[in-house]
Amino acid sequence: MPPTLVFDVNETLLDLSALDAPFNDAFGSPDVRAEWFAQVLQSALVHTVLDTYADFSAIAAAALDMIAARHDRSLSEAEQTAILDTVRELPPHPDVPYALDRLAAADIRLAALSNGSPDVLHAQLAHADLTAYFDEILSAHAVRRLKPAPDPYHMAMDVLGVSACDMGFVAAHTWDVAGAMRVGCPATLVLRDGVTPDPLAPPPTHTLPTLHALADLLDA
What we know:
Blueprint: E1 4-7, H1 20-27, H2 32-50, H3 56-70, H4 77-86, H5 96-105, E2 109-114, H6 118-127, E3 136-139, H7 150-160, E4 167-171, H8 174-182, E5 187-190, E6 206-208, H9 211-216
Parallel strand pairs: 1-2, 1-4, 2-3, 4-5, 5-6
């Protein structure tokens, strides 16, 4: 296992299902949450492909407007705020504290790298009580390019002072894993609910069902 592991945050560490309640209140169905986050990711990827930049919080708000229009809804300010504020208060997946405890105890250096805006990212990790695990908490905003563009991964290497081969990357998104592998990092895909490997992408270094399994690699 590389001496430094860098983790994506949303869905990888934090459980977006906490958003189901405000989405149900606003749209009458918690299923709209997944539709919204898919739109967030699509919009972010469009910016990456076009080599443009928008703040991830602005992308999230714009995606909410798009989903509301798609459902012929006009959300109140209170409904919008309830959804977007909950993004700052997501709980960790149950396997996260255990895995990070084991990795930190093994003297593996840990960092976080997210497309999220710096203020949101720090608020999320503080609320989830995860901040203390990470030597560095990094936002793609610093380079004004969103993952999976190479710039955020290179920025993480520069800040951490490591080469690509010494920086393992962990994410629950196939596109994020592909981005890390493209710049030479060994990468682990975590199969959160609904995640399947991309058959057209290079296979991840590891494909694991949970972060428990990542910690178990220490014993292998």
